[in-house]
Design goal:
Length: 143
């Protein structure tokens, strides 16, 4: 079954074009990372390639090879910044698999022993809280 074409009106494409704001934690020529507005745990962030693709299924492998080192760098930074016991990395492909925003993105979610994460796409976090969490990760990247 066809999954459709990339739609450049998706919300992450708008973030990449600067049309809507985000709590940015990292950017390079190929990649942007910012806080998830409905975090499943404090420090939940998203890493996206700048190049357009709906998800993993239609992405250029060369894009993936530049994306994953950034995912690793940010997973390490989030683990340290939030003193997490572990990090869950998730990535959904198409609506049937739970994808709601159709620009490739990787979730980085700090986790703690014995604590379940909040629901996916659950409750919106306050802007000030997200800004403070972004600063914490940025601070860790600087170390
Ligand atoms: P999914 O496509 O299922 O992997 O999830 C999309 C994620 O994007 C959800 O966790 C949302 O909370 C998050 N999200 C939606 N809109 C925004 C936004 N404007 N800024 C940051 N995160 C967002």
């Amino acid at each position: 079954m066809s999954s459709g074409a990339y739609d450049s009106t998706n919300i992450f494409a708008k973030i990449l074009r600067g049309e809507i704001p985000c709590h940015r934690v990292y950017e390079d020529d190929d990649t942007l990372a910012f806080m998830d507005v409905m975090p499943q745990s404090p420090g939940h962030l998203l890493v996206i390639p700048k190049e357009a693709s709906r998800n993993l299924l239609d992405a250029d492998p060369a894009v993936l090879s530049r994306l994953m080192p950034v995912v690793q760098k940010l997973a390490r930074a989030a683990k340290d910044a939030f003193e997490a016991d572990g990090i869950t990395v998730t990535q959904f492909n198409e609506a049937a698999a739970g994808q709601t925003v159709f620009h490739l993105h990787v979730h980085i979610i700090p986790r703690y022993e014995g604590q379940a994460p909040k629901p996916h796409s659950g409750q919106m976090e306050d802007n000030e809280v997200l800004a403070a969490q972004a600063e914490k990760i940025i601070g860790e990247l600087g170390n």
